[in-house]
Amino acid sequence: MDPILFDDSYFMKQAIQQAEMAYEKDEVPIGAVITYENRIIGRAHNQVEQLNDPTAHAEILAITAACNFAGYKHLDGCTIYITVEPCLMCFGAIQWARLSKIVYGAEEPKTGFDSKHQLQTIIPVIGGIESATCSALMKTFFQSKRN
User: What pTM was computed for the model?
Assistant: First the structure.
């Protein structure tokens, strides 16, 4: 049996599972997980419609879960994996929470903090992990809304 390789792809697949949960609930299918030392300490998916809350993005909810787990408001040494490039609000929350690394799947040219706003950050950012799967989930969701 092959050992589990805890790499960016592995954790992005965990975020994709969260996005699929959002899709099943008719939420925009975005998922996020937060890790510390190869252990998931927070996970969430979009719940904007369910909670009737425009701030209930996957990233914000995952940060809350991770902070509750850690018992502290800062997440130094943690990485956030997000299926879609975070928006400006979520990027701000990531900075305030002091996450150490951002990894995302699909680019978001309309609202993404990096694509749209091209913000300078000292936080390392890696994009494009499992991007085909992340993009396909979003495209399928929005196509179903247009039909």
Answer: 0.93
